[in-house]
Fold:
Amino acid sequence: IQGMTLVAKQSTSADTDPTVDLVVSLDTTAISNKVNAFVNMYNDALNFVNARNKYDSDANTIGTFVGEASVRNILNNLSTGISAQYSGIGNTSLDSLSQMGFKTNKDGKR
Structure:
C-alpha cells in the first residue's frame, strides 16, 4: 500500500504464535467525519465573508469586505478546488468532489 510503513518485530514471548494477521480496511466513518468537517468549515468561511460583504443602504453601513477582492479570491480558489477534476488518485472513477457527493446550493454553501 503506497505510503504505508510496516515494522515487523519478533515476539518476545515463547508462548505466542509468531503468525500475525493484518487486516487493512477502509474507515468510511473517519472519511465521512472529515468530509463533513471540511464542508462545515467551508460553509462557516462563506458565512463569515458574506456577513461582512454587505452594504446596508438603510443604515448607510458598509461591510468590512465590500470591495475587498483578496477575500473573494480566497473563496473562489476554495470553490475551484472543490469543483476541479483530479488525476492520479488511484484506480477509481471518482475524479472530482462532485462525483463524491459535494453539491452547491443556491446560496453557495456545500
